[in-house]
Design a protein that fits this description.
Layout: E1 10-12, H1 18-22, H2 24-30, H3 32-39, E2 41-50, E3 53-62, E4 70-74, H4 82-93, E5 97-101, E6 116-118, H5 122-133, H6 137-152, E7 163-168, H7 170-181, E8 186-192, E9 216-221, H8 223-228, H9 232-243, E10 247-251, H10 268-285
Parallel strand pairs: 4-5, 4-7, 7-8, 8-9, 9-10
Antiparallel strand pairs: 1-6, 2-3, 3-5
Helix pairs in contact: 6-7
């Protein structure tokens, strides 16, 4: 769920502007020798061909001759921006080959917000909702297949290992769709403050897709999402049990959006706890 009641106030990132975002790779190249010496991670801006067009994205992988398992990151409703680049870089530093696409490529190139975004501003908020509305369920499934195919085409990807997918806010439901669309490929799913959209009364509710997957799930819910709909966690647990899928569902002591730096609700301690849980999931399922 992503609305003015869940995302309070401003989201800020002074690194983020259309001009600076467009030259981030150039700037990174200027310090590549230092950065890669410290992290041994390679970062590339890429274009991924999908059935619906070309998606701008960023690819990360461990340097040298190392290979790793593939991981796809679905962003929150504010899209691909420096905070998610940081996540991709961190995951690659842990040994994964990571793709972070711009989910709104049908509507606009990244970034789709500026250095300051006000969720209380209807014009700004509704523009993002319009971008999201352009993503149909079938379109998300096609995108997921294209993104995993792109990852699997990289020489750094170990295709003998299962792949992971993680998502934030709106990306939480997209992780469920990805696991259902690619059951033989996706071995681990991480959903972070995915909101109450994970369980709906609609025929396309993400929780109904669990039975089509073969993955292990980590679902980390926000406390204010849980306060609004306290039955969601129980419905998820019941769906996992019925599908015989291993899963951990937990309500964190933080509000919707807590995992992503830049927002007023960012909670470093709980974000790091979620990251540790994700690392444990990937270590146990993607090794």
């Amino acid at each position: 769920m992503c609305d003015e009641f869940i995302h309070p106030g401003l989201v800020e990132d002074p690194r983020l502007s259309r001009r600076s975002f467009g030259v981030m790779t150039v700037a990174a190249a200027a310090v590549a020798s230092t950065a890669q010496a410290q992290t041994n991670v390679v970062e590339k801006d890429v274009e991924v061909k999908t059935p619906d067009g070309n998606c701008d994205a960023v690819l990360y992988y461990p340097g040298g001759q190392r290979t790793g398992s593939a991981v796809l990151i679905w962003t929150d409703i504010m899209g691909l921006r420096p905070a998610f680049r940081d996540m991709g870089r961190r995951l690659a530093g842990e040994g994964h080959v990571v793709l972070v696409p711009n989910p709104f490529y049908r509507s606009a190139r990244a970034p789709v917000i500026g250095p300051t975004f006000d969720f209380n501003n209807p014009e700004q908020r509704n523009r993002l909702f319009g971008y999201r509305a352009a993503m149909s369920d079938d379109g998300i499934d096609r995108d997921a297949a294209a993104y995993l195919a792109f990852l699997d085409a990289q020489p750094q990807t170990d295709k003998n290992r299962k792949a992971g997918v993680q998502g934030y806010c709106m990306g939480g439901s997209m992780t469920f769709r990805t696991a259902a669309a690619l059951p033989s490929r996706i071995g681990a799913v991480g959903s972070f403050h995915g909101g109450n959209g994970l369980v709906t009364k609609d025929a396309n509710s993400p929780h109904l897709l669990i039975k089509k997957t073969t993955a292990t799930f980590l679902v980390c819910q926000a406390q204010n999402d849980d306060m609004m709909q306290p039955t969601v966690k129980d419905d998820l647990k019941a769906a996992f049990e019925a599908a015989h899928r291993p899963a951990h569902v937990e309500v964190y002591h933080a509000n919707h959006g807590w995992c992503v730096p830049g927002g007023q609700v960012y909670n470093m301690a709980e974000a790091e706890r979620a990251w540790t849980a994700l690392g444990a999931l990937y270590k146990s399922t993607l090794a």
